[in-house]
Amino acid sequence: QVQIQQWGAGVLKPSETLSLTCAVHGGSFSGFYWTWVRQSPGQGLEWIGEIHHSGHTKYNPSLKSRLTMSRDTSKNQFSLELRSVTAADTAVYYCARVVEEMDDAFDVWGPGTTVRVSS
Amino acid sequence: QSVLTQPPSTSASPGQSVTISCSGGNSNVRINVVTWYQQRPGTAPQLLIYSSHKRPSGVPDRFSGSKSGASASLTISDLQSEDEADYLCAAWDDTLMAPLFGGGTKLTVL
Fold this sequence. Notes:
The complex is a heterodimer. By secondary structure, chain A is mainly beta. Chain A contains no helices and 11 strands. In chain B, the strands form 2 sheets. In chain B, strands 1, 3, 4, 7, 8 and 9 form a 6-stranded mixed beta sheet that branches. Chain B is globular, with a radius of gyration of 13 Å. The interface between A and B is medium-sized, with 21 and 26 residues.
């Protein structure tokens, strides 16, 4: 059974860089896109972007200028960096697996990491 | 960020049925499939319905999805207490080039 573990810094100051990592356990890392989604109280869920095991990325155009996603196939891990954060980036950040055969539904999710941006 | 429109809340008694709507537009729900997720407080969303009407293995057949035009619906029949959760819809948006999510509907089982 596929499980996703995630971690990263929970408190940031404005202008700093948010860094989060997810590790995939118990299943294949290859052949899938891996996605990041965030959820803030006032905004609902927002798609951040996704990365294929090959390294190909798709980013939300609204965040693209601040965003870098990467992956380490030797560790079955993928990471998110969001630069120049502001209070608007305060949210719970989730990572998940994208299943192409399910019309790109997100079928396995990490538990979420709460990120707060505050001076 | 644009969102798909869902009613903020709904309620029903155990054993009853409830339908939750998800309204979109010409660049998302009308032309693309809809996905539904269930989210209990403090936990990550869980996949409930994909491709507008298909259930992943393990999801009871009490949950069903449909789509017509720019609107989609999730119906839960024979409501049970453990169905109390938030339900979120999602669909790819061809204009924004990103998946959009609904604001979520909080279901209370009376």
